[in-house]
Amino acid sequence: MPPGGCLKETCPDLGTDPIECTFDSCGPRFGGRECHCGEIPDADPDVCQCGPGIVMGRPFVVGGHVRHAGIISSGGGDWAVAANPILPATDEDRAALGAHWMKAALAEHASVASFSQHSLELLACGAPAHLVEAAHQAARDEVEHAKMAFGLASAYLDIEVRPSALNTTTMEHTSSIAMLASSVLRDGCIAETTAAMEAALAAASCNDPVVQLVLLQTAKDEARHASLAWDTLQWALHSDREAVHQLLEAPLPAVAVSQTDHEVPDLPSFCVSPMTRHLAIQMARESVIGPAIKTLLAGGMTDIATQIAAAAAAHAPSMSPDMCLEHKPANATTV
Predict the structure, then answer these.
(1) Per DSSP, what are the bridge partners of residue 163?
(2) Quick one: pLDDT at residue 4?
(3) What is the 3-state secondary structure (H, E, C) of 275-310?
(4) SS3 (DSSP) at 163
(5) What is the C-alpha separation between 185 and 232, in angstroms, rounded?
(6) 142, containing H or E segment
(7) pLDDT averaged over consecutive 10-residue blocks of the chain (335 residues)?
(8) Inter-residue contact 268 to 207 (CB < 8 Å)
(9) DSSP reduced 3-state for 108
(10) Partner residues linked to 66 by β-bridges
(11) In angstroms, rounded to a whole number, what is the distance separating the alpha carbons of residues 195 and 229?
């Protein structure tokens, strides 16, 4: 797998303290591994340290570090759903697509653990049953996302890939509503809203019906996960108004993206590009996240899924909002 085909690691927004990035499987040291977030100037040259940034999807964070499984390149598992995407002509392009979807699959796989951890935190904070139930359903969604992504990776690489064991030891459990609200804002309201927007925008420009179907399903599910995060934040605001109100009035963390982003191949079947990600970050913050916080502070609630679908459709007129919309929750308003 050539370094040029490796997907860069993504660092979550964990506040102002830098965190150490992990290496990917494409080579030692910095060969084929870079950070999507801003690297700290004058840092230890042997350690890639990243400033605050955003991660696509819900990360599994333990002790300030993102965890995910490794890759096993052999059959015998059921983590890869058979897929038949359009295959590019060159080995380099196929490797690039395979690396991209392999890293996406590992992120989705780790999100299963993240939602499992989140459900325990909800229980520890005395959250209502419908939030706990939705968190478990979200974990099930992430299993399906991982299987679809592993399937695409296996198709492009022409070898079945699946995850190794995931280290879940020393998982942290939040018992404070204020701390829960902080992590939900970071990992759900910001990260998953952005992930849903990115998947919707990518689907709108995707020319491969197999990949587009994966992106559309991901967009629908991630929009529902984002709605869960905003519902949880609303409950937290009602439960601990002073602390959560202060959290929501504070400036949102800046999104830092490394200037060393890899160049995405110009392939119809790739369906994802750095431009799409940057646009998703901007649109999510301006069209959904910012207005939703204002509505929440005013005592209302935004229909997040509808806002994401409408914003994506406005940018891509060929896409109907219904393509990325599963259902409209009751008692929600559009901002």
Answers:
(1) 71
(2) 33
(3) HHHHHHHHHHHHHHHHHHHHHHHCCCCECHHHHHHH
(4) strand
(5) 9
(6) helix 129-157
(7) 33 38 34 34 40 56 83 85 92 87 91 95 96 98 96 94 91 84 91 91 89 94 96 96 93 42 50 79 91 94 90 71 46 39
(8) yes
(9) helix
(10) 61
(11) 13
**pTM higher than the cut 0.70:** yes
Q: 3-class secondary structure for 53-95?
A: CCCCCCCCEECCEECCCCEECCCCCCCCCCCCCCCCCCHHHHH
Dist. CA 238–CA 245, nearest whole Å: 9
Residue 196: its H or E element? helix 191-204
281's tokens: 């970050």
pLDDT at site 100:
84
* C-alpha pair distances (Å), 269 with each of 94, 263, 276: 10, 15, 14
Q: Which of 10, 7, 4 is nearest to 257 (CA)?
A: 10
The residues, any chain, with a CB within 8 Å of residue 169's CB and separated by 6 or more, are none
Single-letter amino acid, residue 259: Q
- Other Cβ atoms closer than 10 A to 257: 17
Nearest CA-CA partner of 204 in 85, 306, 309, 54: 309
Other CB atoms within 10 Å distance of the CB of residue 146: 25
The amino acid occupying position 152 is L
- Pure H helices in 206-254: 209-239, 241-249
Give the separation between CA 58 and CA 152, rounded to whole angstroms. 20
Q: Which residue type, as a one-letter code, is found at position 327?
A: H
The two three-digit tokens of residue 289, written as one number? 């996240």
Q: Within 13 Å, how many C-alpha atoms sit on residue 206's CB side?
A: 22
SS3 9: strand
3-state secondary structure of 19: strand
User: Is 129 buried (19+), middle (13-18) or exposed (0-12) by CB count in 10 A?
Assistant: exposed
Q: What is the rounded CA–CA span in Å between residue 203 and residue 199? A: 6
